[in-house]
Structure formats: C-alpha cells, structure tokens
Design goal:
- 2 copies of one chain form a homodimer.
- Chain A has 310 residues and is α/β, with parallel strands linked by helices.
- Chain A contains 9 helices and 12 strands.
- In chain A, the strands form 3 sheets. A 5-stranded mixed beta sheet of chain A has the order 3-2-1-4-7. A 5-stranded mixed beta sheet of chain A has the order 10-9-8-11-12, with helices on both faces. In chain A, strands 5-6 form a two-stranded antiparallel ribbon.
- In chain A, a hairpin with a 4-residue loop joins strand 5 and strand 6.
- The N and C termini of chain A lie close together (9 Å).
- The mean pLDDT of chain A is 97.
- Chains A and B meet through helix 7 of A and helix 7 of B.
Chain lengths: 310, 310
C-alpha cells in the first residue's frame, strides 16, 4: 500500500483528476474535456488518461470516481445522468478496473464532495455530517457515524427531492414541491425571472444574463429586490433543512456550490429559519456552515472513499 | 455469554419485560404499573423488579430499555418525555446498571420497535429499513446497512417532525406542517372532529367517543365520510413517505401502531400516493408493509440491541 490514491471528478464538460496523498494533499492534477461526442469509450479513455497522467508511473492503491447521478455505487454503473447521455447504463467501475488494473470506486458527485468536506473541510472531525450542494439542482451527501450513507440502491440523501410543500409544483422527479424547485441556483434564477415579468419590481436586475452572481452583486450594491430574492431563497432552504435535520440528526450541515459563496446573504436567512423551525434539544447544537474545499471537494472525497475501501 | 437478554418497554402506564432467547423467543414475561406517583425511584424499582422476575435467577448478558423520547441513548439519560414527567433528566442507564449489575442499553421506543421488526418481523433480512409508529404521535426507527441510525445526539428518524407543508400549522416541536399533525392517530381523530363540527357531513360518526377504531368500523360498514378520512390520512402519510424515502433510501417501510391495523383502508392510499410521488428507479423497489410484531416489537428490539452491544 503506497497510501496514494487518485480522485476523479467526471463532469459533463470536463474530467479532472488529482493524485492525493494520505494526508490529503493533491500533488499532481490533470484535466481533459469530457468527450461526449466519442461515446462511452471516449469518456472512459479520457478518465484513464487523466488517471495515468497524475500517476506518472507511481504505484497507487485505488481510484475513486465522482460522477453525476443517478448511478449505482454498489455495481459502479452509471444510470441516467442528464449531462452524460452517452454513459447511460455503462458499467464504469468494471470497465475502468479492466483498463487500469486497479480497484475503482464509483459514487455520485455529491457523495464524494461530502466525503471530501468531512475529511478535510467543513465537516472535519464531525461524525454526523450533511453536505448540500446548491447548483443546477440541490444535491446531498451524508455521513452518519463516520460512514457514507448510500441506502439500499445508492439513492440516500437525495435532499433536493425532499418536499417542502405538498401542494407545490410538480418536479421532474415525480414528487411535488421538492426543495430543488425552490433552493437550487437554477430555481433562484427562474423564480427571479418570473417575478421580474410578473411583478415588475423596482430593481436594477434585467432578464438578460441573469445569474445568481448577478443577483448577488445587485444585492451587495443595495438593490432591495435582489436582497429579497436571497432572503426568500435562504428561508426556503432553511425550511428544507429543518426537515432534513429531523430525519438525519446531523451536527454540521455544509452548504456548497456557487450560491453558498454569497455568504451571510444566504446563510443569515437559512440559520434564522432553522433556529425558528428546528427541534429544541437539537437545533442548539447544529451548525450550518459553508463548504471549505470548493471544486477540490469531489476529487479529495473520491480519493478518500476509494482508499478506505481497499 | 448465556445468549439470553431482557427487553423492557417502559411506558407511561405500564412497564413490561420479557426474557428473550438468542433466536428471539420471549420465554418469560412480566408487567407492572409504572409508578409515576412514586417518582423516579419508584419507576426504576419497577423496571428492576420486572427484570428480576423474568430472569428468575438465570444468567443474562444485558438489559435493553425502550422508553419514550426525547432521551439521550449515548448517555442513557431520559430527557423530557411528556408521559414520564418524574423521569426528566434521570440517568436511567447508570442507575439500572448499579441496581442490576448488568450492562444496560437505553433507546427510544420507536428505535427499539424498529430493531425488533428488523430482527424478526416486517424488516427481517432487510438491511435498509424504516419503521414508522402511528400513535399519539408519528415515531420512527431507522436501520441503514443493518445499523440503527441514532444521529449525533440520538434524534435521528424523528419522522413525525419532517414537514409536509411549509405553510402548515405550527407543531409543538417548533416546526410547521409536521407529518405528525396529519398522520398520527391523534391527528386523524382531531381532524375528523374538526370536520364533523365544521362541515356537518352525512355520517354515522359522532364527536363523543371518537377513535381511529370507531372511524375504521364506520368505514367498514360503508360510511363514505369515514372512508374519506382514511383515504386522506393515508394520502398525507404517503406524501411524507415520499420525502423520507428521498432522504433515507430504505427498501422496506413498516407501519406500526393501532392505525396500521386498518389494513388496506390505510395502506392503499399510502402506496398509491407514494407510487405517484416517489422517485423513478427507487419506488419500484420500495415495499410499504404492516409491522408484524405488535406490542412485542419493542421488547424484542430492546433485547436485541442490548445483546448486540455486549
């Protein structure tokens, strides 16, 4: 055992890999465009070449791959991620193990980010930890008693599909009022556009080029409507967190992804609403904090999880 | 190690104990009124005498106590259950270990019921299992990968306080729209009374002596309003289960408590709503079933959990 592992973040646009030491340093990195145009063979060769590049002939113990879900982590099979259409049904673990002659672990990117943050970031030393990623959707990775919770078929901690409103709009997942429809970056932009059109509020925001970053800058510049948008999004996230905390009883909840970089503008309403709605005897101990590892969380977590399974 | 353990169900009315074999037979039973009037000393002596009675001088390995929550299972301390006022803050584990000279495990009654059902009942052989108890409240006990999920301070799987409606009524727990406000036996009776008064429906039901059993009998006798009450309660429970399944990814969900004895009248709407709202790729595998052990689930689970920890 060399103590070295490789973590890979497989995205719809780029494939990134890092050589990770036992203490959690990424000593070598590589990146290549994810060649969806070449089909699954091209994507898998891209992963293998990234891995080989960071290994540079050194001996490593295992490779971990974080990929978009849904996937089956037990079998290492990609199921049906929207942004990797050519990979649906591909037995990624088996194919990479054959190519690399190394043990390969596959899990979804949110789980890998949670493993990374719990190892070295916002959840360091925290045995009961939830990592929520706010992006296109709302993803979750959850560690209980220092173990990654996968559930019976790898779909635990799908926190974006916990409903906060039984009478809310239908989600593509089939449920109604899913947290993802209210608190993802995508949802925040969509709801803001709807309000711009429907309410014509006094604001510097315009439909064209609207993003969470643009809304954030406007809020920082004193735009009251933009501030209200953050307030509302944070409050809705806090409502979801109150339910998640009742199910999971985690001590630390980290918020990750671009939206979490808004800092107190997001965290203040999240924490206030959770303080109002959380259970007495629990909420006093729960900390809601920003993720600390940024884009490295997935690579570090994938390396860590793979290393723990050999 | 004798392989024998004692399981205790500490309730606000009765304290019950059973001597449990390694294969899960309850070979001796005892029961005594819970002497709340004598304070914590009286309650603890009642437990000890029940345990001694079923042991009858035999060697046993451990004692497990299921008690109403909230409690701290790590320290074995009763916190603040409504129906055991004299026990608030009592270090039950320490006090019983001193009295009995045996290892004692304390956990909440819903967790113990889940352990029992997973050992010998509705969750037998199921690694990822949720047991929901429908009674005064809605309690939950959850096993993931064959381990009881306790969370950082023993409050995991408080499924009754997962919200199904962010704008719903406030729950005594502090949250709004909690599942417990819609799907407990108590809530079902309360909502029925409200409708009887507010809507004056055509029904054989009357306010006086109303219970879930009375509503069930009326529904069986063809009372359309009573049938609708079950339909609504089941649907609301199904809505909560869709969220719980997204967080926990369990394969089997058992419904326990008196209300679950209504059979298809309750299970049909629960399953139908979950089939509508559950996540594709998960819901096809999830089974929602009745608990099988009745009042013995808690004693068996307490014995099992205690035995597993020595």
């Amino acid at each position: 055992m060399s103590g070295l592992t490789v973590g890979v973040d497989l995205g719809g646009t780029n494939t990134r890999a890092g050589l990770v030491t036992e203490s959690g340093e990424i000593t070598v990195r590589s990146r290549t465009p994810t060649r969806l145009d070449l089909g699954s063979d091209g994507v898998i060769e891209g992963i293998a070449s990234c891995v080989n590049e960071v290994m540079a002939g050194q001996e490593i113990d295992a490779v971990g791959i974080g990929a978009p879900g849904p996937l089956d982590p037990y079998e290492g099979v990609i199921i049906s991620p929207e942004n990797l259409p050519c990979m649906h049904g591909v037995r990624l673990m088996d194919r990479l193990e054959a190519l690399l002659s190394l043990p390969v672990t596959v899990d979804n990117d949110a789980n890998m980010a949670a493993c990374g943050e719990q190892w070295l970031g916002a959840g360091k030393g925290v045995a009961h930890f939830l990592c929520i990623t706010l992006g296109t959707g709302v993803g979750g990775g959850w560690i209980s008693n220092n173990l990654l919770m996968r559930g019976f078929n790898g779909n635990a901690a799908e926190v974006g599909h916990v409903s906060i409103d039984k009478d809310g709009p239908r989600c593509p997942c089939g449920n109604y009022g899913c947290l993802e429809l209210y608190a993802s970056a995508t949802a925040m932009v969509r709801r803001t556009k709807e309000r711009l059109v429907g309410e014509r509020p006094e604001t510097s925001l315009i439909l064209d080029g609207l993003s969470t970053e643009v809304i954030f800058q406007a809020a920082e510049a004193g735009d009251a409507f933009a501030q209200e948008v953050f307030e509302d999004t944070g409050a809705l996230l806090g409502i979801g967190i109150a339910s998640l905390a009742s199910a999971m009883n985690v001590e630390v909840i980290a918020l990750c992804g671009g939206l979490a970089r808004a800092g107190d503008r997001l965290f203040e309403p999240v924490r206030r609403v959770y303080a109002d709605r959380g259970t007495v005897g629990v909420k006093e101990y729960v900390r809601i904090v920003p993720g600390l590892l940024g884009d490295d969380a997935g690579i570090l977590g994938a390396a860590r999880l793979a290393g723990s399974q050999v």
